[in-house]
Amino acid sequence: MNTLLALALMSATAHPAPAWLAGDWEPYSNAFAGLRMLSIGKDTLSWKGCKNVPFDVLDVQGDSVTLRLASGSTCSLDDEPPTRMDTLRFTLRENHCDLGVAIYASPEAAKKNEPAAEGLYGKPRCPSGPVGQAAANLSTTTR
User: Fold this and answer.
1) Counting CB atoms within 10 angstroms of each CB, which of 3, 14, 18, 82 has the fewest?
2) Are 53 and 41 in contact (CB under 8 A)?
3) Burial environment of residue 115 by CB neighbours within 10 A (0 to 12, 13 to 18, 19 or more)
4) Would you say 104 and 87 are in contact if contact means Cβ atoms under 8 Å apart?
5) Is the distance from CB of 17 to CB of 88 less than 8 angstroms?
6) Residue 20 neighbours by CB under 8 Å, 6+ apart
């Protein structure tokens, strides 16, 4: 009976990833050019240096979703020394083609909204306008 109760509680608190998040996203921002293509599935993501890393959806609010990568993931930024990606916040823009990406080194940094890096990704072949224009609309520096 305890196992059933635990399963019921886990499923009641788990959030599914929104359907709009799934797919391939290409970097628009200079800060993320070295990370290359971001591929997001139902419950895993692949990025430079990490493949099919499981994630948990922590929060979904409108067009924004916050994920936490599995503790053993090898996802990291291209800075020196490399910052491990822990918590990610994705925000879909109004055009449904551009994705604001904020990367946090820890859950605490995410709670304080102190990203290690932030920038912009977009759907390949999406009519959102020139890549250069999209990138100019968001900070492209790591912090």
Assistant:
1) 3
2) no
3) buried
4) yes
5) no
6) 63, 92, 96
Helix, strand or coil, per DSSP, at residue 3: helix
Residues 87/97, Cβ–Cβ less than 8 Å: no
pLDDT in tens, 24-36: 999 988 878 888 8
Residue 44 neighbours by CB distance under 10 Å:
16
Hey, what's the torsion of the CAs at 123, 125, 127, 130, to 10 degrees?
A: 90
Fill in the amino acid letter for 29. S
Q: How far apart are CA 112 and CA 63, in angstroms?
A: 20
What residue type is 24 in one-letter code?
Answer: D
Q: What is the pTM of this model?
A: 0.79
Angle value at C-alpha 133, between 66 and 31, nearest 5 degrees: 50
Q: Which residue's entry shows tokens 């959806």?
A: 57
Query: ω before 81 within 30° of 0 (cis)?
Result: yes
Mean pLDDT (the chain, rounded): 81
